[in-house]
Amino acid sequence: GAGVSQTPSNKVTEKGKYVELRCDPISGHTALYWYRQSLGQGPEFLIYFQGTGAADDSGLPNDRFFAVRPEGSVSTLKIQRTERGDSAVYLCASSSPGQQTYNEQFFGPGTRLTVL
Amino acid sequence: QKEVEQDPGPLSVPEGAIVSLNCTYSNSAFQYFMWYRQYSRKGPELLMYTYSSGNKEDGRFTAQVDKSSKYISLFIRDSQPSDSATYLCAMKRERGSNYKLTFGKGTLLTVNP
């Protein structure tokens, strides 16, 4: 079956512009996560959705970052007034709650954001 | 100090070598320990996970967790060129914010034919 998909795969923008990054999770997965991976670093948690609501947005670096998941499936990460330091790969992951104690997070290929 | 420390390498080995990758951590609340493999320009994919302490083996891969030392390892036997990738350790709690993965920096491995 289809995995997690993210669009666009690459995004180049200018400092100060607004960008939207999209994530399509695996069908039926109610949990969705966004992570950011800077060059030479591991992914860092940004936000976690359970269904439509953001259960934990403590990883969002500041109020320029916002994410939505209005229908409990597709999610959009929105970044206002982009800065050069926002350049990174933005990864989306999804998981199925199930009854198991360990729920694997399946990652998409990421969106590579470059802010000039 | 970061919660999870991982030597970024790079590590270069000949085909057939045994590879040892490791991470240390500081948060004793971590109970799940994962190893992810990430190929260039791809998302991480789960290789193995271990709950609490002990060893786990899957084919050529063995994961070890020593909670008393806060140290985890991944061993790759008979390494292949296709194993060339970045290996990320990750950890999470069992309770509380048990959905949040905390990653190491990743170790870049190259297996030379």
Which terms summarize this structure?
heterodimer, A: 116 residues, mainly beta, seven-stranded mixed beta sheet, four-stranded antiparallel beta sheet, B: 113 residues, six-stranded mixed beta sheet, 11 strands, globular
Question: Can you put this structure into words, describing what you see?
Answer:
The complex is a heterodimer of chains A (116) and B (113). Chain A has strands at residues 5-7, 10-13, 19-24, 31-37, 44-50, 53-56, 65-68, 75-79, 88-95, 106-107, 111-115. In chain A, a hairpin with a 2-residue loop joins strand 5 (44-50) and strand 6. Chain A is mainly beta and 116 residues long. Chain A is globular and about 40 Å long. In chain A, strands 2, 4, 5, 6, 9, 10 and 11 form a 7-stranded mixed beta sheet that branches. Chain A has a 4-stranded antiparallel beta sheet with strand order 1-3-8-7, with no helix packed on it. Chain B has 113 residues and is mostly beta strands. Chain B has strands at 4-6, 11-14, 19-25, 30-38, 45-51, 54-58, 61-66, 71-76, 85-93, 102-103, 107-112. In chain B, the strands form 2 sheets. In chain B, strands 2, 4, 5, 9, 10 and 11 form a 6-stranded mixed beta sheet that branches. In chain B, strands 1-3-8-7-6 form a 5-stranded antiparallel beta sheet, with no helix packed on it. In chain B, a hairpin with a 2-residue loop joins strand 6 and strand 7. Classes of the chains: A mainly beta (116), B mainly beta (113). The interface between A and B is medium-sized, with 28 and 24 residues.
